[in-house]
Amino acid sequence: MNDALRTPDDRFADLTGYAFAPRYVELPDPDRASKTLRMHYVDEGPAQAAPILCLHGQPTWSYLYRHMIPLFTAAGHRVVAPDFIGFGRSDKPPRADDYTYARHVDWLKAFRNATDLTNITLVCQDWGGLIGLRAAAEEPQRFARIVAANTALPDAHGVSDADAGRVSAAMRDYYATLPVHQSAPAMGMAMRGDQSGMGFLHWVKFCAETPVFKVSDVVRVSGGRLGDAEAAAYDAPFPDDSYMAGARRFPSLVPIMPDNPAIPANRAAWRTLEQWHKPFLTAFSDGDPVTAGAHVRFQQSVPGAKRQEHVTIAGAGHFLQEEKPVELANAVLRFIVDNPL
Length: 341
Fold this sequence. Notes:
There is one protein chain. The chain has helices at 68-74, 101-115, 127-138, 161-177, 184-191, 200-209, 215-221, 228-235, 245-253, 263-273, 294-301, 320-323, 325-338; strands spanning 23-28, 36-44, 51-55, 78-82, 120-125, 143-149, 280-285, 311-313. With 341 residues, the protein is an alpha/beta fold. It has a domain at 9-157 and 261-338: 3-Layer(aba) Sandwich (Rossmann fold), CATH 3.40.50. An eight-stranded mixed sheet has the order 1-2-4-3-5-6-7-8, sandwiched between helices. Helix 3 links the parallel strand 5 and strand 6. Helix 2 crosses helix 3. The longest helix is centred in the middle third of the chain and has 17 residues, at 161-177. It is globular, with a radius of gyration of 19 Å. It starts with 22 loop residues before the first strand and ends with a helix. The model has no long low-confidence stretch (mean pLDDT 93).
């Protein structure tokens, strides 16, 4: 792993709506024991309170939770919102191959160990769920509640081992035929997946190969109505494309192909979730083109989800923290009250 890039601090000066003090932990570099990676996080509210751990997805960062954090702290909760490695104020290894699904899970677990979080209420969206649900399944004693919002845990469900190679080969062949989308409307088309996973490959191709990739464009395409200052804040972590390896890489790591190396670990996580009796809530929006329908499996398969009053948040797309932060925050707060430790 080459030396990681670090976004200059002045890029984060006076961001609109984001006046939280930066905090950092040093995490082991998986390739070099003598090196570390710096991970940034927000930590607000009373230190003695059980934490709400808010995990962002691709290509956003903890700025996504700026409206929700004050609502949680006003209710007396501690809120911890890290930036995954490659995002936000965290260090950014420069090569796509520096990022793997397993490394992201390990980085999150190392962060949890460094901050000694326990009795966690996990709030996870997009890749925040892919990583956070794996971490919760691997360290269930640390987690008290889970809120899954517009996320999934792909494991090639329903595809037999005998068919895995054939299906994966067909998906790779299809990927090779795809054009590279370069405009915001085309990006919207790429985000609109389907049950086969073929539609999502448009998004993978776009992120990996488009010459111009902006975080604010992605949020806007999903429905986020950003002002210029907010758009600049979403783009602040990435002065140029050399900082974007992690943001571009995430879609390629989603295990939609049945022979993806993350499939066994995700299936193991599902086996744990299928025995998960602690409270589990789904809070999906009604207009997400990416994860529509993924809530059904959580509700049907996770025992702790069966007695909950699940939430559908109307009028929001993929980034519901940006579009409906009050509604999502209130759903989380009600869930915590209804399911005391």
